[in-house]
Amino acid sequence: MIRKLLLVVLVGFATFACGLPAAVAQSQFDKVFPIKGQITQGIITEMGRDKVKLDTSGLSRDFQVNEIRSITYADEPSELNSARNAAVRKSYSEALTDLKKLDGMPPTRDVIRQDVEFYKALSLAKLAMTEGGDKAAASAAMLNFAKSAPQNFHFYEAAEVMGDLAVASGNFADAVRFYGPVATAPWGDYQMRANNAIGRALAADKQFDPAIGKFDAVLASDLATAEAVHQKQLATVGKSVCLAETGKADQGIAALQEIIAKNDPADAALFARTYNALGRCYLKQTKPKEALQAFLHTDLLFSAEPDAHAEALFYLSTLWNDMNKTERGLAARTTLQQRYAGSVWNNSNRKP
């Protein structure tokens, strides 16, 4: 009889919980959303930059940070979850609007406060690098987060964002320094990603030989995971630009054409960078028509990649003018200024 009564109570509670709004129904447990596998709920007992420990009904389970897609927390305000989801959709203004509603509402747990600070800094940074905003303020916000929560699972992402902000501000030496901690992460794919980022920052600073060294380090990795293969392809793209800048454009073009031939253009991030690199190589060979065609691929097919699209528009604005297509050149420049006001490519003093 007691067992039947308990069953009725549990079923009734489950039915009640399922009928609650998501923010309330989820508020009883922390939840780890892995990149692969099932969502796991429990209570986080340890937060670290490398791993997160979750207690599930008395059993402890470790999650490596590189396996985590996101985490939600027990008792977190619904505005935080809305902001987190908006950031995933790259709707950063919407995320900031949601987070602003939490002003003056002290969070119940440190991890919740840290998530609020991280997503606020992330949104400020992404907007500053695209639509425009105060890059210095965004960098300060992210640096404050990293200093106050050095063991938060967002730490490596924060370091990458600070590096990206430094690149977008033309502070390439700072970018190399900020990317540094990611290169010391305990996972090979993170190390490869950091070396690629450092290589691109060095190349932007015209330090082509050291940049090639970073790209070669990625290419020399024994890792063969899907992410590792992707990073090696990006390293080939970055190295090709450096080869062109050091008088070996033909080698760069051959490598880039092989990437285009052997990969799926659905990988927009790879193809946008590849076509931009191809355009850079053709410019070094004084082949403006071929360069224009390469940058047009990015403009017309891969415009969803903000930084690569801004780069393509920068070069197109000059190439169209050189071909006496001033209206198209003006259109490219106007799109660059309006859509990517915060981009490093939107600089009137920059020269191709």
Explain what you see.
The protein is an alpha+beta fold and 352 residues long. It has 16 helices and 5 strands. The protein has a 5-stranded antiparallel β-sheet, with no helix packed on it. The radius of gyration is 23 Å and the shape is globular.
Q: Which helices and strands, and how do they pair?
A:
Blueprint lengths: L1 H17 L3 H4 L4 E5 L5 E8 L3 E6 L2 E6 L3 E5 L5 H11 L3 H9 L9 H20 L5 H14 L6 H14 L3 H12 L4 H17 L3 H12 L6 H20 L3 H14 L5 H17 L3 H14 L4 H17 L3 H14 L13
Antiparallel strand pairs: 1-2, 1-5, 2-3, 3-4
Helix pairs in contact: 3-4, 3-5, 4-5, 5-6, 5-7, 6-7, 7-8, 7-9, 8-9, 9-10, 9-11, 10-11, 11-12, 11-13, 12-13, 13-14, 13-15, 14-15, 15-16
- Class computed from helices, strands and strand pairing: alpha+beta
Shape label: globular
What's the CATH architecture of the domain at 275-352?
A: Alpha Horseshoe
CATH topology label of the domain at 275-352: Serine Threonine Protein Phosphatase 5, Tetratricopeptide repeat
Computed CA radius of gyration, to the nearest angstrom:
23 Å
Spatial order of the strands in the main sheet? 4-3-2-1-5
Q: How many strands in all?
A: 5
Text of the CATH class of the domain at 275-352: Mainly Alpha
Enumerate the spans where pLDDT stays under 50 for 5 or more consecutive residues.
Answer: 1-26
> Helix segment count?
16
**Major sheet summary line:** 5 strands, antiparallel
Order of helices and strands: HHEEEEEHHHHHHHHHHHHHH
Q: What is the first-to-last residue Cα distance?
A: 82 Å
Strand content: 5-15%
Oligomeric assembly: single chain
Query: Overall mean pLDDT score?
Result: 91
Q: Give the proportion of residues in helices.
A: 55-70%
